[in-house]
Design goal:
Blueprint: E1 6-11, E2 14-19, E3 25-26, E4 29-30, H1 41-69, H2 73-84, E5 89-91, H3 92-98, H4 103-115, E6 119-124, E7 127-135, H5 137-159, H6 164-181
Antiparallel strand pairs: 1-2, 3-4, 5-7, 6-7
C-alpha cells in the first residue's frame, strides 16, 4: 500500500483507518479515490449567488406576469418561443424539450392556453404521429401587449444595475455554464429572443 494521508473514521464501535488515495476496502469501508475538489471562497460566493438568483428571479418575473398578463413565467415562455418560430408553429415535442418540460406538463399548459384562444394544436403535416402547437393571432396580440412590462421588469431586476462590461462578462460566463449543462444547446434554443 502506498504511503498517503490516512484518516480514521468510526463506524459503530470500531475505528478504521482509511487511505484517502486508495480505491479499495480498508477496515470494511471503501476509501475514496481522491479528496473532493472543494470550492474556493470565491467559487462558493459565486455558487451561492447563482443559486439564489435562479431561485428568486423567476418568482419576481412571474409575479409581474401573473398580475399584468394572467400568465405564469412558463406560459409566457411557451408563447414567446412560439412567437419566434416560423409561422409561429413548433412541434409539441420540440417545445417541451426547449421549455425543459415533460410533454405531459406542456400539454396541460397548452390546454390552458387553448382555452384562452392563444394557442391551437394542429396535426403535423410531415408526421401524422406528431402534433404542432400554433400561436394564434390573439395569442400573439396578448404577448405583444404584455411584452413591454415583461421587458421592463427584466431590465429593472437584471440589467439596470450592470455595466456593459459586466453584461459581457456575465454573458460569457453563463454561456460556458450553459454549454456544460446542455452541450450544443440542444434543450434550450439560444438565439434572438428580442422582438
Amino acid at each position: 500500500m502506498r504511503s498517503a494521508s490516512l484518516r480514521c473514521v468510526t463506524f459503530g464501535r470500531k475505528s478504521h483507518r482509511l487511505e484517502a488515495s486508495s480505491n479499495y476496502w480498508i477496515g470494511g469501508c471503501v476509501a475514496e479515490q481522491n479528496e473532493p475538489r472543494w470550492l474556493s471562497e470565491a467559487e462558493r460566493d459565486m455558487w451561492v449567488r447563482l443559486v439564489a438568483t435562479t431561485l428568486l428571479l423567476p418568482g419576481e418575473v412571474e409575479a409581474q406576469l401573473k398580475r399584468d398578463a394572467g400568465l405564469t413565467f412558463f406560459e409566457y415562455h411557451v408563447l414567446a418561443m412560439l412567437s419566434e418560430a416560423d409561422e409561429r408553429t413548433r412541434l409539441m415535442s420540440d417545445l417541451a424539450r426547449w421549455a425543459n418540460s415533460s410533454l405531459s406538463r406542456l400539454s396541460h399548459v397548452v390546454t390552458r392556453l387553448e382555452k384562452q384562444g392563444w394557442v391551437r394544436r394542429e396535426a403535423c403535416p410531415d408526421d401524422r404521429r406528431a402534433t404542432n402547437a400554433v400561436l394564434t393571432d390573439e395569442g400573439f396580440a396578448h404577448l405583444e401587449a404584455h411584452a413591454p412590462a415583461h421587458v421592463e421588469i427584466v431590465r429593472k431586476l437584471v440589467f439596470d444595475g450592470l455595466t456593459p462590461e459586466q453584461i459581457a462578462v456575465t454573458t460569457t460566463a453563463l454561456g460556458t455554464i450553459l454549454e456544460a449543462v446542455d452541450p450544443g444547446h440542444t434543450q434550450i434554443p439560444v438565439g434572438n429572443i428580442s422582438k
